[in-house]
Specification:
With 276 residues, the protein is an all-alpha fold. It is built from 13 helices and no strands.
């Protein structure tokens, strides 16, 4: 059921101001991991999310210093707000729309779980949206939706159902890209399998180091294994590796002048590939 006109108008105002938060989060994903701990989300925002008053939650979060973690929660809330006040997506956009919506509900469910609340409302809406996304997706998309649904069931404590669902997924489809490795890592973490989560995280890191570290910093997918020694060691190693890469990229190579102006003739062939 759609919200009242007044509430919809309030959410629309929030969504209209949301792009800068999303853009900030994207920019942060490419920067070095901050040494400081993630900011504490204010209790009034947690309470608002738990009561499904996302307009109040976003307003409370906007009073806080902006950070990747805060912007991550705002983005989840505004994705849901867009759906609740918008029109149904076209057929060509249905999979993307409903999977993004499902992930937003999933993320808010995990956020509340990390604060001690198992919210059945967000859980049910996430599952419903994954099913809609699956109906509109490709073979790979269907496998991803099943994997995310299995992870969600596991996070709710329904591990037998999660395992049964996971057993029906063609594993070959999930070993070719960054997002598949993210989802696989989230599933294993929700199942309490730190070794499996670390293996998938390491694969994701090899594909996209900055994206993997940024995701770990802002999300709650690994709350169930965050105290596991293997997981903690891997995350520390990833952060150190990325920081070292950032520092290296800031230091120019000691190869003499950066510009050489030849007197005549064709330009000399490059000695090697430019650093990316």
């Amino acid at each position: 059921m759609r919200r009242s006109i007044a509430t919809a108008a309030a959410l629309l105002a929030i969504v209209a101001s949301a792009p800068h938060a999303a853009e900030a989060a994207k920019k942060k994903a490419g920067q070095r991991a901050p040494a400081a701990a993630s900011p504490v989300v204010p209790q009034r925002a947690i309470d608002a999310i738990a009561s499904h008053d996302l307009a109040a939650a976003v307003l409370a979060l906007r009073d806080e210093p902006q950070s990747p973690r805060i912007n991550y929660i705002i983005r989840a809330a505004t994705s849901i707000a867009l759906d609740e006040i918008g029109e149904s997506p076209s057929r060509s956009e249905a999979h993307k729309h409903y999977q993004n919506l499902a992930v937003a509900y999933h993320n808010l469910f995990l956020f509340l779980k990390s604060h001690g609340t198992m919210d059945r409302g967000y859980f049910d809406k996430a599952l419903k949206s994954y099913k809609k996304a699956k109906r509109a997706g490709t073979v790979l998309h269907k496998a991803e939706c099943d994997l995310l649904s299995a992870a969600l069931h596991a996070s709710m404590g329904e591990r037998e159902k999660a395992l049964k669902m996971f057993g029906k997924i063609d594993d070959i489809l999930l070993r070719s890209d960054f997002e598949s490795m993210e989802y696989l890592a989230a599933y294993h973490a929700a199942m309490g399998d730190a070794a499996g989560a670390c293996e998938a995280l390491a694969a994701a890191f090899r594909i996209n180091p900055a994206g993997t570290v940024a995701w770990i910093e802002v999300g709650d997918d690994f709350h169930d294994i965050e105290d596991d020694p293997q997981y903690r060691s891997l995350v520390a190693s990833m952060s150190s590796s990325r920081n070292a890469d950032d520092i290296t990229l800031c230091v120019p190579p000691a190869e003499g002048p950066k510009l050489e102006m030849p007197e005549a003739g064709p330009a000399p062939a490059p000695k090697g590939k430019p650093r990316k």
